[in-house]
Amino acid sequence: IEGIRVNCITPGLIETDITQGKLTPERKKEIAESIPLARLGAASDVAGACVFLASDLSAYCTGITLDVNGGMLIH
């Protein structure tokens, strides 16, 4: 046993410098209204997921996909 864990983070719509100027404020508002947490994501939201997976708090997690999308893809 190598003790190697493999996990994945799948971010939703995250506001970054790449998204700036791509969406109008009105469109951002429409999208935010469709997300259960009622906002677009921030880079710090993804960073928090990375910190969790890198920490001992996730010691028993392997083979997971961690969605960081505010509930945008709840089915």
* Assembly type: single chain
Distance between the termini: 36 Å
The overall strand count is 4
Beta-strand percent range: 15-25%
Shape, per Cα inertia axes: elongated
> What strand order characterises the main sheet?
1-4
- H and E order: EEHEHE
The count of helical stretches stands at 2
Mean pLDDT: 94
Low-confidence spans: none
- The domain tally reads 1
Task: Indicate the topology.
Blueprint lengths: L7 E4 L2 E2 L9 H10 L6 E2 H12 L10 E4 L7
Parallel strand pairs: 1-4, 2-3
Give a description of the structure.
The structure is a single chain. The chain has one domain. The protein has two helices and four strands, in the order ββαβαβ. Helices cover 29% and strands 16% of the residues. With 75 residues, the chain is of the alpha/beta class. It has helices spanning 25-34, 43-54, and strands at 8-11, 14-15, 41-42, 65-68. It is elongated, with a radius of gyration of 15 Å. The strands form two sheets. The protein has a two-stranded parallel sheet with strand order 1-4.
